[in-house]
Design brief:
It comes from Eragrostis curvula (weeping love grass). The protein has six helices and eleven strands. With 258 residues, it is α+β, with helices and mostly antiparallel strands.
Length: 258
């Protein structure tokens, strides 16, 4: 079956993605995570505290409509490499392999997850995880960090305000490296909380609103997760909090109309 490549990238180039580093099973470089400053302690989530952060430029591959996504290979590595002329053994091929492996791996204990390759499939998957119908209205809404795609330079940011994102259940959808937009969505049955954090850059005065999650139960996480090294904790230890990178989506289910 032929593929219409018009909405796809012309040449897929491997690029670092901090988004995938926030997944429970992540094994990203602790150095890259430390430089980004994306992980922090719960005690820092208060007005007046400061954090050294950098928000890197994020790749923005095409979000495919379902009719295109259904024709593009996703599950088989060789098929994906052939469809996008990605040389075997290249950095790009390794990124594709890592994403497919992550998507096909079983979820950790207490987690429900899925990988989706179209906007419609992403929304439907999130709705199923939240236990509501696709056409349900009022009790599910989406939220994301307000960040520029081009990123922001590394500097010290002051926390200006913190407010909870009220919800009974959350589904987080993270972008993962691929020639087109693929989201890994997951919901954890363990304790966690979501917050809107207003930050102000002390060097250039830039103001941003970032979505943050605090995970209170990390006992099922990959012991090699970089957050543990950066925050000097371990699985099941002190809570791990992180900001949600550009392009990630969170679907929030509330008991009453939002």
């Amino acid at each position: 079956m032929s593929i219409d490549h018009s909405p796809l990238v012309e040449h897929y180039t491997a690029s670092p993605s901090i988004s995938a580093c926030t997944l429970f099973e992540s094994s990203c470089s602790p150095q890259a995570v430390a430089e980004a400053g994306i992980f922090f302690h719960e005690t820092q989530l208060r007005p007046g505290s400061t954090m050294t952060l950098s928000f890197s430029e994020e790749a923005a591959p095409a979000i495919l409509p379902r009719d295109v996504a259904d024709k593009v290979p996703f599950t088989n590595l060789d098929d994906v490499l052939a469809a996008f002329d990605i040389p075997a053994g290249s950095a790009e091929a390794e990124q594709v392999r890592n994403t497919l492996s992550r998507c096909q791996a079983p979820p950790i204990a207490g987690e429900v997850k899925s990988c989706t390759a179209s906007l419609e499939a992403t929304v439907q998957s999130a709705m199923r995880m939240l236990g509501v119908g696709y056409h349900a209205g009022g009790d599910v809404w989406a939220v994301a960090s307000e960040l520029p795609r081009a990123g922001l330079p590394r500097q010290t940011y002051a926390v200006a305000a913190v407010s909870p994102v009220h919800g009974d259940q959350y589904v987080s959808c993270h972008t993962v490296p691929f020639p087109y937009a693929v989201y890994q969505c997951h919901v954890s049955l363990g304790g966690y909380g979501s917050f809107k954090v207003s930050l102000r850059g002390l060097r250039d005065g830039s103001a941003i609103a970032a979505l943050a999650f605090c995970h209170f139960d990390t006992s099922g996480w990959n012991p090699a997760h970089p957050a543990f090294e950066v925050l000097h904790t371990k699985p099941g230890g002190s809570p791990v909090c992180h900001f949600t990178p550009y392009g990630n989506l969170v679907f929030v289910k509330t008991a009453t109309t939002a």
